[in-house]
């Protein structure tokens, strides 16, 4: 097998894996492609360009009008590689048993959700009961408020990435309801998965939601009240600590909502997002 053919085969496999990770289940294949697949594999003793060129030509998809292209047809090697890397990470995280007490009590692992190409990432501490049941982070009442905050920024939940430091719901022995904070040891055990997610996504900014997530990421004990609104750095990425949405559900004072929104304005400015006068005026007294 020639080097060019091997590279082409590897790229094709990576592309298909990326499509699979993106939930693409069907592909249009031209008759020429089937003919090319049935052709003998070129051997190393036939390294000429004339051998390689017909193969490259035969597996290219038929040209389509630009207006009809989908995200699957315009994927690049970089996006394919990210999708494949995230799919591989997910496959390793879902059966994780590093914390037996959490693995035995969880309903399912809550991996993360959103756009793996997102410039903005939100990180919380751990899944709650709703998240454990449905397998998606921030979908309970606090998550619904987070979604509203994201939309107020002019974004959509699907255009950011949302994850937790801990991928399993902390067990609550002896409790029939409620949640508990993850321990530092639990977060340290699970954090390498999050670090790999960040490495794959490469966000331009991170928002740490709440004191526990901030402490778990930064290892600082100053308290969220002092840290919020001040840019920090996490493995080379700007990080903005802010209050957890659950805090705003408990304390709905306009002044507290404004503090979180001011933090989001700083994030928007960091990402060079447009900020309207209406957005700047949110939660200000008339």
Annotate the secondary structure layout.
Layout: H1 3-21, H2 31-38, H3 49-59, H4 77-93, H5 100-105, E1 113-114, E2 120-124, H6 129-134, H7 141-152, E3 161-164, H8 184-201, E4 205-209, H9 211-218, H10 224-227, E5 232-234, E6 237-242, H11 245-250, H12 254-270, H13 277-280
Structure description:
The structure is a single chain. The protein has a six-stranded mixed beta sheet, with helices on both faces. It folds into two domains: 3-68, no CATH class; 77-280, Uracil-DNA glycosylase-like domain (Uracil-DNA Glycosylase, subunit E). It has helices spanning 3-21, 31-38, 49-59, 77-93, 100-105, 129-134, 141-152, 184-201, 211-218, 224-227, 245-250, 254-270, 277-280; strands spanning 113-114, 120-124, 161-164, 205-209, 232-234, 237-242. A hairpin with a 2-residue loop joins β5 (232-234) and β6. The protein is built from 13 helices and six strands. It is an alpha/beta fold.
What percent of residues adopt helix (DSSP H or I)? 40-55%
Give the name of the CATH superfamily of the largest domain.
Uracil-DNA glycosylase-like domain
Average pLDDT taken over every residue: 82
| Intertermini distance | 72 Å
The name of the CATH topology of the largest domain is Uracil-DNA Glycosylase, subunit E
Number of folding domains?
2
The helix/strand class is alpha/beta
Task: Please outline the major beta sheet.
Answer: 6 strands, mixed
CATH class of the largest domain: Alpha Beta
Q: Are there runs of 5+ residues with pLDDT below 50, and where? A: 40-73
CATH architecture of the largest domain: 3-Layer(aba) Sandwich
How are the strands ordered across the major sheet? 1-3-2-4-6-5
Radius of gyration, in angstroms, nearest whole number: 23 Å
Envelope shape: globular
- Beta content: 5-15%
DSSP, total strands? 6
Q: What is the number of helical segments per DSSP (H or I, 4+ residues)?
A: 13
């Amino acid at each position: 097998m020639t080097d060019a053919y091997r590279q082409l085969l590897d790229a094709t496999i990576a592309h298909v894996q990326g499509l699979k990770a993106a939930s693409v289940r069907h592909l249009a294949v031209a008759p020429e492609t089937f003919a090319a697949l049935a052709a003998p594999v070129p051997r190393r003793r036939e390294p000429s360009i004339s051998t390689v060129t017909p193969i490259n030509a035969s597996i290219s998809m038929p040209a389509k009008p630009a207006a009809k292209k989908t995200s699957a047809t315009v994927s690049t090697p970089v996006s394919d590689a990210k999708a494949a890397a995230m799919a591989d990470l997910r496959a390793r995280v879902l059966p994780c048993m590093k914390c037996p007490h959490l693995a035995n009590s969880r309903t399912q692992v809550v991996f993360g959700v959103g756009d793996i190409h997102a410039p903005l990432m939100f990180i919380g501490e751990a899944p709650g009961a709703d998240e454990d049941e449905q397998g998606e982070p921030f979908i309970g009442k606090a998550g619904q408020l987070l979604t509203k905050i994201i939309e107020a920024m002019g974004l959509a939940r699907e255009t950011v990435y949302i994850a937790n430091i801990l991928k399993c719901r902390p067990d609550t022995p002896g409790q029939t309801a409620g949640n508990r904070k993850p321990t530092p040891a639990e977060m340290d055990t699970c954090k390498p998965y999050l670090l790999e997610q960040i490495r794959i996504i490469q966000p331009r900014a991170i928002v740490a939601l709440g004191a526990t997530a901030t402490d778990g990421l930064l290892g600082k004990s100053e308290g969220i009240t002092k840290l919020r609104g001040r840019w920090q750095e996490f493995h080379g990425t700007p990080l903005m600590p802010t209050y957890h949405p659950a805090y705003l559900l408990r304390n709905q004072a306009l002044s507290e909502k404004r503090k979180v929104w001011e933090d989001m304005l700083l994030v928007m400015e960091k990402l060079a997002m447009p900020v309207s006068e209406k957005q700047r005026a949110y939660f200000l007294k008339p």
